[in-house]
Amino acid sequence: MKDFIIPDRDFGTPAAKSKQMVTLNIDGFDITVPEGTSIMRAAAEIGISVPKLCATDSIDAFGSCRLCLVEIEGRNGTPASCTTPVAPGLKVHTQNAKLKQLRRGVMELYISDHPLDCLTCSANGDCELQDMAGAVGLRDVRYDAVDTHFRVKNTSGEANPNYIPRDDSNPYFSYDPQKCIVCSRCVRACEEVQGTFALTIEGRGFDSRVSFGAKTDTALSSDCVSCGACVQACPTATLQEKSVIEIGTPERSVITTCAYCGVGCSFKAEMRGDELVRMVPYKHGKANRGHSCVKGRFAYGYASHKDRILNPMIRDSINDPWQEVSWSEAMEFAANRMKGIQTKYGRQSVGVITSSRCTNEETYLVQKLTRAVFLNNNTDTCARVCHSPTGYGLGQTLGTSAGTQDFDSVEETDVVIVIGANPVSGHPVFASRLKKRLRKGAKLIVIDPRRTEMVESPHIKAAHHLALTPGTNVAIVTALAHVIVTEGLFDAAFIQDRCDWDEFQDYAEFVSQPHHAPEAVEMLTGVKAADVRAAARLFATGGNGSIYYGLGVTEHSQGSTTVIGIANLAMMTGNIGRPGVGVNPLRGQNNVQGSCDMGSFPHELPGYRHVKGEAVRDIFEKVWGVQIDPEPGLRIPNMLDAAVEGTFKGLYCQGEDILQSDPDTKHVAAGLAAMECVIVHDLFLNETANYAHVFFPGSTFLEKDGTFTNAERRINRVRKVMAPRNGYADWEVTQMFAQAMGANWNYTHPMQIMEEIALTTPSFAGVTYEKLETMGSIQWPCNEKAPEGTPLMHVDGFVRGKGKFINTEYVATDEKTGPRFPLLLTTGRILSQYNVGAQTRRTPNVAWHDQDVLEIHPHDAEVRGVKDGDFVRLASRSGDTTLRATITDRVNPGVVYTTFHHPDTQANVITTDFSDWATNCPEYKVTAVQVSPSNGPSEWQEEYAAQATKSRRIAAAE
Amino acid sequence: MSLNAVHEGPHAKLIYMANQIAKFMESKPHAEGVELLAAHINDFWEPRMRRHLFEVLDAGGTNLRPLVLDAAAKIKRPALAA
C-alpha cells in the first residue's frame, strides 16, 4: 500500500519520536508505529486517509472538527483519531455505517454555514472542505440556516452583522472570513510553527471568528509577519495567496531552494505553464521542515520586475549612456578591454568578485576564470564583508570554516547564546525553530547592543540580555570564559580528551588574569558583572549549550578574535560534536557558505586549501592545464586600494553590489571610477553599475540549474522552472566570457561543473547530482569516509586534530566617540527587506519597510530636539547622510541603529574603513556619529542621485 | 578616511593593518607571536602589499610595532612585479 503514498501527503498529526514501537490493527491491517503516534497518522502510514478538517501534520492535534471519528473495539464511543494515541493490540475501524452517518451529519452542519460557490471559488480544486464533502458522501443539506456568516444581507434584506468583508490589506494573501470554518489551523500554525501569535480566535460558539489580534487590526497592521504558515494551513479559501486568486491553481511543482538568506529553505515552485503561481515551503526540506518567511514565500516578484535588464550593454565611458548590443558584441568588447588592460598593466591588474547569490557551479567558474584565464588569484566575494572572520577563527581553532551543526540540532539544545545576530529578522525560519525550542523550556542568553525581537516576544524571554556597548564583544566573551575557568565550570574531561591540555593551561592562565573579570570590564562593556557571571554559569552548567552568531560578531576590527573566543567557549564547556550544541554562524546570503567553499577567497583554492600548497595547485593545474600563481591575490579592499593607486584596472563582478554593500562608499566609488573596465553581471542596473562599462544581464534562481550550500553546509539543488528571460543562465554567461578571453570551456550542464568540483575537492568528492536527486540534499564533507554527508562536525575529534585554545586579548577599536561624534552607530537588517534590497525593494515587501530609519533613544533624541519621524542628519568622520528618526528604547542611550536596505540612505557613506585585523572584514557595526535635525537630503545624497540617474541612461535603439 | 587620521603617509593604511595583526599576536609568547605574525602576512597579503610593507621596513619601519619589526626577517619578500 505504501507505494501509493505520494511524498507530500498530509499525515494529519506530527510524527512521534519515541523509540518504543507499538503494533495495532486498523481496518484489518497490522501496523507498527512509534509510541505516541495518533491513530490518524498510523492509518495514514498504511494509506488509509481518515476524513479530517482541523488536523494537519505541521501542528499538534486539536480535535475540534469531529470528522475523524473512529471506532475502537472494546472502547466506548467514537473518539477522534487525531487526538487518540495508538496502544498495543488496538483494533480500529475507520469506516462503518455509524461513522459514515456521524461524519455526514458533521459535514452537513459545516456546509449549512458555507457559501456554495465552489465553481467560482479561488480554492476550487484545492479545498479540503470540498474534498471532505466528497469523501463523506454528502448529498443533501437539510438545514436552511437562518443566521450565517457568509450572506451579506440576512433574509429580511438587512445587513448581516455576522458578515465580515474580505481583508485584502496584506499584499500577498487575502483573509476572507465568509469561507472560514473556524478549524483554528491558522491560529495554531501562527503559534506553533511561526511563533508570532498574531492570530487568535475571538468570541465563542457560533460567534467564534479568526482575528488578527485586536478588533481594529487588519492583516497588515497586526503583528503578522506574513510568513504564510496560516495560508498553507488553511483548508479552505479563507486564507489564500492572491496569486492563486488571480491565476488559478498550479498544475505542477518543482522542488528548488530559496535564493534569500543562508537558512536555504526548500520550496516547491508551483507552476502553470511557465508562470510561477506560488512558492510553497517543502515539507521534506531539511533546513526548513515545511516553514518559510515572507521573503522566500512571497517576495519573488523581482524576477519579472520592469527594472530587470534583459539585454547586454556596453559603453566607452561611464559618462556615456548605455548601448544595447548583442551577446557576442558584449563579449568581444569586454574581452578586448580586459586583454588590453593585462597587456598594458600586467597579469595582476584585473580580477573578479564572485557572488554569494549565484550557484556553487557559477561561483566555481568565476574563480576559475581569474585563476585559469587571467592567471592570477585576484578573486574575492561578499563573504569578505560578512563572514570572513568565521573562516579564519573557526579554521584556526577547530580546523574548518563552517558551522558545526545542522538546524535540527536546535531541537535538542538546552541553553542558547545568540550573539550579534537577530535571527527573527535575518534568519526567520531558523528563528521560528529556535523559538519553538525555547517555548518548550530551553534557556536563552542574548548578547546584543539592541533589544532585538529575540530578547522578548510572545512567550519568549531571554534569561539574560547582555546589552553591551558596540565594539566590546571580545571583552564580554573573554569575561564569560574568565568566569567559567576561574569558577571551575569547564569540562576537564572533554578538554583532556579532545584538546591540547597544556595549551589549555596556558589559555586558562591568560583568561584568569584579573583584567578579564566581568567586574574589570564592566565600565567598557556597560554590562553588569553579575549578569555576565550568571550567564556564564548558565551556559556552562545548563545542559547542551549552543552558540548562534551573526554579523554583529564578525563585522568588527576584532571580528576574528570574537569568533575564536566563541570557539573557546564551546570547547571549554564540551559543547561540540553532538546534537544540541556547537558553534553556528548564521550566514547572510543564500550561498555565502558555498561561495567560500568554492575557492572565492584570493588565498584559497576550492576546499579551503592555500594556494601556496604545491600538491593542491598540482591537482588544479592538471585539470585546468595552466600554471597557478602560488601567491595570494587581492581582497576586495585591496582591489579598491590598488585601483586608486593605479595598478588594478579591470573587474568582473558577478551578482554583488559593492558600491552599496561595502564600507566607505566614497572610497569604493573612487576605486571603481579609477578602473578602465568594470563588468557588472546582475539582474538590475545596481549601484556598482553606475561605474561599469559592460553589463551582462543575469538570470534568477528560477531560471537555472545548480546548487546552493546553506549555513549548515547543506548542498541543495536549485532547479530551473522557467527559461532565462535574459537568454542565458549565469554560468553560461561566464563561460561565454571565458571563451571570448580564449579559454576552451565547453560545459553543457552545471552537473559537469559539479563533477569537476568533486574531482578536485576532497570535501565534495562524493557529491553528484544523482545523489542529490535521491537524497534530497547532502551536508559536506561528503566523501569515501562519509558517503551520505556529515550532519554534525567534529564528532570523534576535531578536523584539525586537537582543538586549539587561542588567547583573545581585547583591543579597543580606534573608532572612538568624542565630542564631535558622541554616539555609536550600529547596523542591522529587517525581516521584510534583504541585504541591499535589490530584490525585495522590487516587491510589495516595501509595504512593511519603505525606507531606512534611525533608531535613537528618547534621551539622545530629546537633547538634540529630535522628534519621532523627523528628518535627521547622521554624520561620521567619513561622511553624512539623512534619514528619518524613530524614537525607541530598543537601543541604549549613546547607541543609534539603522538598516542599510535602501540605496538613497547610503548608510555606508557613514561607515569607516576600519576592518578586522585578520581578514579585513569591515567594521560595519561600530561608527562614531553625531545626529542633528535636518531639512532633507544631504549634498552627497543629491550628487549621488544625480550621478546615478545620469549613469543609468540607456540610449534609444535606432 | 578615518585611518589616515591615525597615521599619515602613503602607506598609513598598511602600517595600521600590520600593527593590528601585531596587537593580536602580542598576547602570545614572543617567539610564537613573531612566527605567527610573519605567517599571517605571508598567507594573506598579496605581493603588492608586502612590497609596500618592505618599503616601510627598508626605510626603518617608522610607526610599526616592535613585533612587526621582529617578524620582518620571516616575511617573504615578493619577487619583482610580473
Describe the structure.
In chain A, 29% of the residues lie in helices and 16% in strands. Chain A contains 29 helices and 36 strands. Chain A has a 7-stranded mixed β-sheet with strand order 13-12-27-26-25-14-15. In chain A, α9 (360-374) packs across α26 and α13 packs parallel to α19. The longest helix of chain A is centred in the middle third of the chain and has 19 residues, at 327-345. Chain B has 82 residues and is mostly helical. Chain B has one domain (13-74). Chain B has 5 helices and no strands. In chain B, α2 packs across α3. The chains are: A alpha/beta (958), B mainly alpha (82). At the A-B interface, α22 of A face α1, α2, α3 and α4 of B.
Helix and strand run of chain B: HHHHH
Number of domains of chain B: 1
The structural class of chain B is mainly alpha
Beta-strand percentage of chain B? Answer: under 5%
Largest sheet of chain A: 7 strands, mixed
| Spatial order of the strands forming the largest sheet of chain A | 13-12-27-26-25-14-15
Low-confidence stretches of chain B: 1-6
Which of globular, elongated, flat, extended, rod-shaped describes the shape of chain B? globular
Distance N to C terminus of chain A: 66 Å
Give the amount of beta strand of chain A, in percent: 15-25%
* First-last Cα distance of chain B: 30 Å
* Mean of pLDDT of chain B: 87
Oligomeric state: heterodimer
Average pLDDT number of chain A = 93
Overall geometry of chain A = globular
Helical residue percent of chain B?
A: 55-70%
Largest interface (CB within 8 Å) is between: A-B, 43 and 26 residues
Q: Spans of chain A with pLDDT under 50 lasting ≥5 residues?
A: 1-6
